[in-house]
Amino acid sequence: MDERLFFPATLRNRRAIGEVLDKFLPQHGIVLEIASGSGEHGVTFQKRFPNILWQTSDPDPSCRKSINSWIMHEALAEKMPLSIDLSVEKTPWPLPNKYISKVSAIICINLIHIAHWNCTKFLFKESEKHLKRSSTLILYGPFKINNSHTSESNAIFDMSLRSRNKHWGIRDLDAVDEVAEIHSFKRRNLIKMPANNFCLVFSRTSK
After folding, report:
1. Which of 11, 27, 120, 205 falls 20 to 30 Å from 184 in CA-CA distance?
2. What is the pTM of this model?
């Protein structure tokens, strides 16, 4: 049964994100994707980086069904593991035992602006447990800089998010950096992306 979901934003941004990942992902190892959504990013990047094992995750059962359906559709079942039920704020993260010590990068696309601020805190707190020194954590999405929106469209988007849920909203870069540093991460790069988004590239500073 084909249970694939199709997210238009994924089709628009996957090439640009992939070009960033080309520069910062390790040559080998396990990449953990947080909040993988439809799974379109996951299968795209698994095919783009065949020497990496791409572990998707999502707390939504319908998303996990979609991810797994995409894996089957793209004939990746022998290479790519099925998605796992992982909610950022539920700790410890339920990674398979064989992967726990082998995660070499974590990527999170379009999550922290549609989640409670605590989600950002738990994202860095748990990533600190799983990533070794110099390993990479990458966030993609819209951000404020110096507490100001980078475009009028982002300001409108932010108001829309907050009207839907008072705990949602575009996060300020300085606030994210502060949480990162508490949990032994340092931002190394701020990369401007299409459609008023950014990639934030953090490196694990200790362990």
Report:
1. 27
2. 0.96
Residue closest to 58 by CA, chosen among 39, 36, 31, 40: 36
Dist CA 41 CA 31 (whole Å):
12
Crossing angle for the helix pair 8-24 and 40-48, nearest 10 degrees?
Answer: 30
Average model confidence (pLDDT) across the chain: 96
- Is 1 contained in some domain? no
The residue range of the domain holding 135 is 8-204
Residue 173, classed as helix, strand or coil, is helix
Whichever domain contains 51, its CATH number is 3.40.50.150
Does residue 111 lie in a domain region? Answer: yes
- Does residue 92 have a cis peptide bond before it, meaning omega lies within 30 degrees of 0? yes
Flag whether 100 is in a domain.
yes
pLDDT for 206 equals 80
